[in-house]
Every structure is written in structure tokens, then in C-alpha cells.
Design a protein that fits this description.
The chain has helices at 3-13, 22-37, 42-65, 69-85, 91-113, 121-128, 130-146, 153-169, 171-182, 189-204, 209-215, 220-237. With 256 residues, the chain is mainly alpha-helical. The longest helix is centred in the first third of the chain and has 24 residues, at 42-65.
């Protein structure tokens, strides 16, 4: 049994009276994501995603047992990020974590502005991005599938929907959220930079749509529709795709 798997099993076995520390969960999350990123085959990815989902479930359960709001938010951060990284199986849990965190985070931010230090702005800002992170990951999986599919009527409809919906569900939504997230009282510069970089990376990943059009040659109408949406997206952000080759993929936010 790998050290990472053994540690995860230990985490899951802890009784309620021994709720793990969010920082320890965050360390385990980083190790599992590194393991996932190192995978070179589907079986390895499936195993890593399974462990991430187990961590997400354990962290969500720990959040339910926490008696301190700052600690609860810390557990929710790990649960949400682990669910996001676990793939399609974690999407529903990520949505529940986001919903659970929103009201709590807005309340904590109001307290911070009234002079009550709560120490959760970074976690809360990250938690608010979960829907966009999940939508982005889902879109990339769909792009990879469509790029190797025969261009039938169903596939073309799915592709056209993806082309139209991707901006509003990812980088445009992040752009709408960004002013409020950057205004969280006490937000660290590192998390602020991650928020801005994540929006830019999501925008640049829109180029991957072309992976599909390249695999479906000869459809001039579809190609024109894609180019029109690209121009619309670039205009909405005020920036084109220049410099996107140097943009790094979306990764875990910095530790608090």
C-alpha cells in the first residue's frame, strides 16, 4: 500500500473525536494531486481520482463535525478542491460544498469588516470559484472526447453547445466574481494572484475547442461559428489569445 493511500485510509478511519486538521488534509490533497498529474494511463488516473473523492468525502464529513467556523471552512476548502480534482464523480459533492460555504463565507466577511478576525478569506474566495473550476474541468473532458468522435448530429450539437456555454460558465463568470473575491477582507496576495491567473488560464483553454474543429475537417459552417464565438469571447475580456502559450494550466490554489 502506498504511503499516500495508507494516509488516506488512516484519515477515513479517524473517529469523530479525532477530526483531522484541515492543514493535514490540505497536505494530503497536494500529494494526491501530484500523484494524479504524474499518471500516464487511465488506470492510474482512475485510482488517483478515487482517492481524491474519498478525501473529499472525509473532509466534507469533518466540516460537518467542526465546532469552529474557521476550521469548518478549512475542511470545506479541501473537500471542494478534492471533489473538483476527482473528476466527474465529484461534481455533485463540489456543488454541495460550494452551496454550504457561500452563506457562511459572506457572514464571516461581514464580521471581518466589523473588526472580528475570522481568518478565512483565502478559503472562502477559493470556495466561491468551485462552480467555474468544475465547469472548466468538465469542458476539457468533453473536448477530449469530441476530438476523437465521429462528427455525427449528436456530437455536433454537443460541440456547438460547448462552444457557446464555455465562456459564460468559466472565464466570464470568473470575471464577474473577481471584484468581489478580490475584495474579501484580508485576502492574501498569493490567492489574489491565483484568482487572476485562473481566469486567464480558463480563457486560454478556450483555444482547445480548435482541437475538435481540427479533427472534423470540411465543415466550413461549424468552423465559422467557432471563430465568431472566439472573437466574441476575446472582445468580452478585452484580451486576445496572445501570450496564451506561456500560461500555465489551472492548478491548486496556494496554501493559506
Amino acid at each position: 500500500m502506498s504511503r499516500i493511500l495508507a494516509a488516506t485510509v488512516l484519515l477515513l478511519a479517524l473517529p469523530a473525536c479525532m477530526t483531522p486538521n484541515p492543514a493535514d488534509e490540505a497536505d494530503r490533497l497536494s500529494a494526491l494531486v501530484a500523484q494524479l498529474e504524474a499518471c500516464t494511463d487511465a488506470a492510474c488516473r482512475s485510482d488517483a481520482e478515487g482517492e481524491l473523492l474519498e478525501l473529499a468525502q472525509a473532509a466534507a464529513a469533518a466540516a460537518g463535525r467542526a465546532r469552529n467556523e474557521q476550521r469548518r471552512i478549512g475542511h470545506l476548502r479541501v473537500a471542494g478542491l478534492a471533489a473538483w480534482q476527482s473528476g466527474e464523480a465529484g461534481e455533485a459533492l463540489a456543488a454541495r460544498v460550494n452551496e454550504n460555504a457561500l452563506t457562511r463565507c459572506r457572514t464571516l466577511d461581514e464580521l471581518a469588516r466589523d473588526g472580528v478576525p475570522v481568518g478565512a478569506p483565502d478559503d472562502c474566495a477559493v470556495l466561491e470559484t468551485l462552480p467555474t473550476l468544475v465547469a472548466h474541468a468538465s469542458a476539457l473532458r468533453q473536448i477530449a472526447t469530441l476530438a476523437t468522435a465521429a462528427p455525427g448530429a449528436r456530437e455536433k450539437f454537443a460541440f456547438e453547445t460547448l462552444v457557446a456555454d464555455y465562456p459564460s460558465q468559466t472565464f466570464l463568470l470568473l470575471g464577474d466574481l473577481e471584484p468581489r473575491l478580490l475584495a474579501y477582507e484580508g485576502l492574501s496576495p498569493a490567492t489574489a494572484r491565483w484568482l487572476v491567473a485562473t481566469r486567464r488560464s480558463a480563457f486560454c483553454d478556450y483555444r482547445r475547442i480548435r482541437d475538435v474543429t481540427a479533427a472534423w475537417p470540411g465543415d466550413a459552417l461549424l468552423a465559422r461559428e467557432v471563430e465568431r464565438e472566439f472573437r466574441r469571447a476575446a472582445g468580452a475580456t478585452g484580451k486576445g489569445f496572445d501570450g496564451c502559450d506561456a500560461v500555465v494550466p489551472i492548478g491548486l490554489p496556494p496554501s493559506g
